[in-house]
Amino acid sequence: MTKIVLCILDGFGYTKSSFGNATLDATYITSLINSPGTAFLEASGRYVGLPDGQFGNSEVGHLTLGSGQVLKQKLPQITDAIQSGQLAKHKVLQNFIQSISTNTCHLMGLFSNGGVHSDIVHFFWAIEFLRSHNITVKAHLFLDGRDVGFKDALDTLKNALDNDKVRLSEIATIQGRFYAMDRDNRLDRTKKAFDAITTGIAEYKSDNPLDSIRQFYNQNINDETMPPIVMNSYAGADKNDAFWMLNFRTDRIKQILTLLLDNGYKVLNMVDCGEEIDNRADVLFPTVQVQNTLGEILSRNGIGQLRIAETEKYAHVTYFFNGGKDIQYDGEDRILIPSPKVKDYSETPDMSATAIKEKVIAAMKASSHQVIIVNFANADMLGHTGNLEATRKSMQLLDNHVKNIVETATTNGYTVILTADHGNAEEMINEDGTPKKTHTCSKVPFVLTPHIETKIKPKTLADVAPIMLDILGIK
Hints:
The chain is of the alpha/beta class. Helices cover 36% and strands 17% of the residues. The chain has 18 helices and 15 strands. The strands form two sheets. Strands 6-7-5-4-3-8-9-10 form an eight-stranded mixed sheet, with helices on both faces. The chain has a seven-stranded mixed sheet with strand order 2-15-14-1-13-11-12, sandwiched between helices. α2 (58-67) runs parallel beside α14 (311-320), α9 packs across α11 (254-262) and α15 (353-366) runs parallel beside α17.
């Protein structure tokens, strides 16, 4: 019986350059990558359904890996709808506008050019759209610092204010994504974001958001971790006000949306977020159901599959890998390992990788599942810290875990596929010497060990699922 471990090294891109390249500290993995038969897969831009030049991300990467297809992503879908004029005419949006009894709409989202969770162009369009309908705008700006430079917010906001893309009177709160976009059930963070947004209560108040951002920069507090700041002119939300979430990636908006909905606020979402939220909120761009995902085909053929990840990537290896569907297939088992409860993962370079490795090894020794799909979050989550030394340490630890998995696989009849969903840790220093925390457009490695010649020559992430089926003898 053919057995496979798909090992997704999240954020482990490939470059020949050693400059700021933490992945080279994973010497065993590097030796596998340098062995004959390794391929390098496209994981960004049009190859994963994004605009050309847009780096990939974990949601898109896992959707592409799990579906075996290039799916047009929400970013270009929304942009196309804006440019064609169709979004302005959208029935759900028109009904939402007409239902705002207080004439006030709260716009929320990541105020960033990163293109991973949001697009600032969408933010500006929504402001202008509401103005054209004489709706009062209250903007709640989530600062980025991960998918763009860690001090980009100051220039981004200044430029927006200077060009009337947003007005000072329209800004209600600003805060780092650390608070407003947590996805690991750190509800103390989410509650601070919620309180600032709905009650106007926060430790920090301001008359000028630019001055406040500068003050926090002077304290070495950058965009991502900037605490909630409430503008002095903002007194909170009326219970009948409406909220519009502009982020198009779902994993980091569920907690704040759940709090809003639980407290009776009317919510409009760009995208669907699962039944618990969608049954209570309006949705502009529902997900088109993806058919014949890898998980679905394995289940249909009676092949047991195990999904393993820590909290930070659990949704990716389950929900996103299954085509963005809240479904667990027959024969699909899952193991969730909690991520460390720390403010910065540079404090815990191993993250929860040791526990994940142990679960994978135990499953292989028991031969409990014919296909094991595991995500190691280290290269991505440590890469986002911008701490090169901590990321190098993390790669050394990850390297040992992967070596243990490959050795155990060899003695227990498993073929291991090593790949990644996008790049990050291979480029951690900008040309000017500053830390780089963003994803990259690098290709990602594809290693089969032991090496097997397959009918499909891997070129993009969409080829991984078909190759796995080919190895298993499934069309």
